[in-house]
Automatic annotation (TrEMBL):
Biased composition regions of type Basic and acidic residues, renumbered to the chain: 236-245
Native source species: Dekkera bruxellensis
Record-given protein name: DEBR0S3_13960g1_1
Lineage top rank: taxon: Eukaryota
Keyword flag Secreted: no
Annotated Acidic residues bias: 133-150
SAC3/GANP/THP3 conserved domain mapped to chain residues: 356-619
Any Pfam family: SAC3_GANP
Coiled-coil annotated residue ranges, if any: 166-193
GO cellular component entries: nucleus
Chain segments carrying region Disordered: 117-162, 226-245
C-alpha cells in the first residue's frame, strides 16, 4: 500500500479504507507489473512517485470515484512517449472535447458549403433557349449566330466564378483534412511500431540477461561441485597418507620396542649368568679353606647363597605361574549358550557351582572360586526373585547389591547372551527409577557392546537407545547423543518407521539444543499424562506373576509399570535442570512474574508443586501474595537463582554422577 500525505480536499478519501476496489486493484496490478519488469533503483523511485502523484491528483480533483482505474496507466510502466502523468478520465474528456470541436468545425464547413450552394442556386440564371430549343450558353448552338448581338451580363459571370472558387476551396480543405488525418495515423503507426520495437528489444534483453544468469548459476554449481570433489579427493589422499604414515610409525615403534625388549632380556640374562658364576666361584673358594675357625663362616656363607638362589628361583617360578594364568584367561572365549551345564566345561572354561539365589557383592581380589559363583540356571532364578522383590517394594540398596553380584557372576563365567542383556536392561530400569545414574551408565556400557553383536536380536534396544540419548542430555554430552542418533538412523532401513521412543528422544534432543524449553515442557507434559493414564490401568491389574512373566516375553520390560514410566523418569531428571535454566533466564528478563504463569512454564501446575519447589530451593522468601495467588519478585531472587544455576550445572565425574 502506498503511503499518502494528508490532503484537506476530501477527508473521506484520505482513508485507504474508503477507496474503491478498482483503485486497490490498480495499485496491486501496478506493483505486479513493476516486479515483472524488474524495475530497480531510480526507475523504482520514479514509479512509486508517479503512483503516489496520480492518487493524490485524483483525491485533490475529487475524481477517485469518477476515474476508470481499470484503464489507468503509468508512464514508467507503459512507456507512452510524449504523454505526461494524466488521469484516464481527463484523457477521455480531452478526446471528447477535441472530437466535439472537430464535429463543430465540420458542421460549420458543411453549413458554409450548403449556404454557398444555396446562394449559387439562388443566383443561378435559368437557361434560355433559342428558337431552335437549344441552350443559348452552348457554344455550338450559338457559334456563328451572334456577331454583334447581346453579350452575357458581367455580374452573372462573377457569380459563376465565385461558385467555382467556393467548390475548389472546399475540395482543398477536405483534401488538407484528409492529408492531416493520414499524417496523424502515419505518426501513430510509427509510434506504435517504435514502442513495439522497444518492448521487443527489452524482452529480448531481459531474456538474454536471464539466460546469462542461468548459465552463470550453472557454472557456479559446476565449479562448486568440482571444488567439493577436489577437496574430497585431497582429504582422502591426506587421510591415506596419514594412515600409511601412522602404520609405518607403528611398525618402527614396534621394531624399536622389540629391539629394546631383546636387549633388556639379554642384559638380564647376562646379569643372572654373572651372578651364578660368582656364586660358584665363591663356593669353590670356601671349600678350599682348611682353617679351624672357618666352618661356621662356611656354613653361614653357603646358607646365604642358598637363600639368595631360593629367592631368585621363587621369583622366576612366580613369573612363570603368572604367565600361565594370563595365557589361560586370554584363551577364554565368551559363551553364547544360555543353557550352560553346571559341570566343568571340557574346554576349561570357568563354570560356577553355587546354588544360593542371594549373594552379597564382594569385589574380587584373587581368582574366583567356583563354589561361590552361581551358574546360569541359578542366575535365572535369581533374576526372577529380584524382580518379584522389586515389585514388592524392596529397598534399592539391597536390589542394587544383588544385581551387581549377579552381573559379577556373569562376567567371571564369560556369559555373553540374551540373558546377560536382559539382566543389564532390568538393572538399568531400576537405576533410572531410583536416580542411580552411575549404575545406569555402567549397564549402558555393557548393553552398547551386546547390541553391537550381530548374533543377538535384542528387541528392546531402541527403547534403551532413547534412554542413552536422554542420559547424554542430562550429562550435556551432545556429541555422544548425535553419534547415537546417527548410528540408529544408519541401522534402520530406509522405508522403516522410526520407533516412538526414538522419535520423542530425538525431539527432546532438538528442543534442548535450541533451548526451546516451552516445547520441551509440552513434550514432558504429554509423556507425563500418558504415564499417569497407564499407571491407573496397571494398578487395576494386581497379578504380579503375569507381570513377572513379561520379562521373558517379546514385549517391553514393564516391571509392573506403564510403557512410558521410565522414559518419564529420565525426563523428570532433565526437567529439574531445565527448570533451573529457565528460571535463571526469567529472573534476568523480568522484575516479577505471576505464580500461575510460572507454574505452567516450569510444568509445576499440580497441587503444591510450585510451593514445594520454592521451599526446596530457598525461594519462598521472594514470593509476595496478591489477589491472583502470589508473584515471584525476580529482581530480588536473581542472586539466589544464579547461585542455584551454578551449583546445578557442575562437572560430571568419571562414573557419570552429577
Amino acid at each position: 500500500m502506498v503511503n499518502l500525505p494528508p490532503h484537506n480536499d476530501d477527508s473521506s478519501m484520505r482513508n485507504p479504507a474508503n477507496w474503491p476496489k478498482s483503485l486497490q486493484e490498480f495499485i496491486s496490478h501496478s506493483f505486479e507489473q513493476a516486479a515483472k519488469q524488474n524495475i530497480q533503483g531510480m526507475e523504482k523511485k520514479k514509479f512509486q512517485g508517479e503512483l503516489r502523484n496520480i492518487i493524490n491528483k485524483s483525491i485533490k480533483e475529487k475524481k477517485v470515484l469518477i476515474n476508470d482505474w481499470t484503464k489507468q496507466t503509468l508512464p514508467t510502466l507503459c512507456h507512452p512517449y510524449g504523454q505526461g502523468l494524466q488521469l484516464y478520465c481527463d484523457i477521455v474528456e480531452k478526446k471528447r472535447a477535441k472530437n466535439l470541436k472537430g464535429k463543430k468545425k465540420s458542421a460549420t464547413n458543411n453549413m458554409e458549403t450548403t449556404k454557398l450552394g444555396q446562394n449559387s442556386k439562388a443566383v443561378s440564371i435559368p437557361k434560355k433557349r433559342n428558337i431552335f430549343e437549344q441552350d443559348e450558353n452552348d457554344p455550338e448552338a450559338i457559334s456563328g449566330v451572334e456577331e454583334d448581338g447581346d453579350k452575357e451580363n458581367p455580374s452573372k459571370k462573377r457569380h459563376k466564378a465565385d461558385i467555382k472558387v467556393s467548390k475548389n476551396v472546399l475540395e482543398k480543405i477536405q483534401e488538407a483534412e484528409a492529408d492531416k488525418n493520414r499524417e496523424k495515423m502515419k505518426k501513430e503507426d510509427e509510434l506504435r511500431r517504435i514502442v513495439a520495437r522497444k518492448v521487443e528489444e527489452e524482452r529480448v534483453l531481459t531474456a538474454e540477461k536471464q539466460k546469462q544468469k542461468r548459465l552463470a548459476k550453472l557454472e557456479r554449481k559446476r565449479m562448486r561441485r568440482a571444488m567439493r570433489k577436489a577437496a574430497l579427493k585431497a582429504t582422502q589422499e591426506a587421510d591415506q597418507k596419514a594412515k600409511q604414515k601412522a602404520i609405518q610409525e607403528a611398525k618402527q615403534k614396534a621394531v624399536q620396542e622389540a629391539k629394546q625388549k631383546a636387549a633388556q632380556e639379554a642384559k638380564q640374562k647376562a646379569i643372572q649368568e654373572a651372578k651364578q658364576k660368582e656364586m660358584q666361584e665363591a663356593t669353590q673358594n670356601v671349600n678350599q679353606k682348611q682353617l679351624a675357625n672357618q666352618p661356621t663362616n662356611i656354613i653361614m656363607g653357603s646358607a646365604g647363597t642358598s637363600k639368595e638362589k631360593l629367592d631368585v628361583m621363587n621369583s622366576e617360578q612366580r613369573k612363570k605361574l603368572r604367565e600361565k594364568r594370563f595365557e589361560r584367561e586370554l584363551q577364554y572365549e565368551p559363551t553364547t549358550d544360555t543353557q550352560t551345564s553346571d559341570k566343568a566345561d571340557p574346554e576349561g572354561r570357568f563354570v560356577g557351582t553355587c546354588e544360593k539365589l542371594e549373594k552379597k557383592y564382594l569385589r574380587l581380589t584373587s581368582q574366583p572360586n567356583p563354589e561361590l559363583v552361581r551358574p546360569v540356571r541359578v542366575l535365572k532364578q535369581t533374576l526372577t526373585l529380584l524382580v518379584r522383590k522389586y515389585m514388592e517394594h524392596a529397598h534399592y540398596g539391597y536390589l542394587c547389591d544383588q544385581f551387581k553380584s549377579l552381573r559379577q557372576d556373569l562376567t567371571v563365567q564369560k556369559i555373553w547372551s540374551l540373558f546377560a542383556a536382559r539382566v543389564y536392561e532390568v538393572h538399568s530400569k531400576l537405576a533410572i527409577e531410583f536416580g542411580d545414574m552411575g549404575e545406569f551408565n555402567q549397564c549402558q556400557t555393557q548393553l552398547k557392546l551386546l547390541y553391537a553383536d550381530s548374533r543377538f536380536q535384542c528387541i528392546n534396544k531402541y527403547e534403551f537407545y532413547s534412554y542413552r540419548i536422554l542420559y547424554c542430555l542430562l550429562t550435556e554430552d551432545l556429541e555422544e547423543a548425535f553419534n547415537i542418533k546417527l548410528q540408529v538412523l544408519c541401522e534402520l532401513p530406509k522405508d522403516a518407521e522410526i520407533p516412538e521412543f526414538l522419535t520423542r528422544a530425538f525431539a527432546a534432543l532438538n528442543f534442548s539444543l535450541t533451548s526451546d524449553f516451552y516445547r520441551f515442557s509440552k513434550l514432558a507434559m504429554k509423556v507425563r499424562d500418558e504415564t499417569d493414564a497407564d499407571e491407573i490401568k496397571v494398578k487395576a491389574d494386581s497379578q504380579t506373576d503375569s507381570q513377572i512373566q513379561q520379562i521373558w516375553s517379546d514385549h517391553h520390560l514393564l516391571l509392573g509399570h506403564g510403557k512410558w514410566y521410565f522414559f518419564n523418569k529420565m525426563l523428570e531428571n532433565i526437567m529439574h535442570r531445565e527448570r533451573i535454566r529457565t528460571l535463571d533466564t526469567i529472573c534476568n528478563a523480568y522484575r516479577q512474574i505471576d505464580n500461575s504463569v510460572l507454574g505452567q512454564l516450569l510444568l509445576l501446575d499440580r497441587g503444591h508443586d510450585l510451593a514445594d519447589f520454592y521451599t526446596k530451593h530457598s525461594l519462598a522468601g521472594f514470593v509476595e501474595n496478591n489477589s491472583s495467588g502470589g508473584i515471584l519478585v525476580c529482581h530480588k531472587a536473581k542472586s539466589t537463582v544464579d547461585a542455584l544455576f551454578r551449583s546445578t550445572f557442575q562437572t560430571i565425574d568419571i562414573k557419570g554422577q552429577i
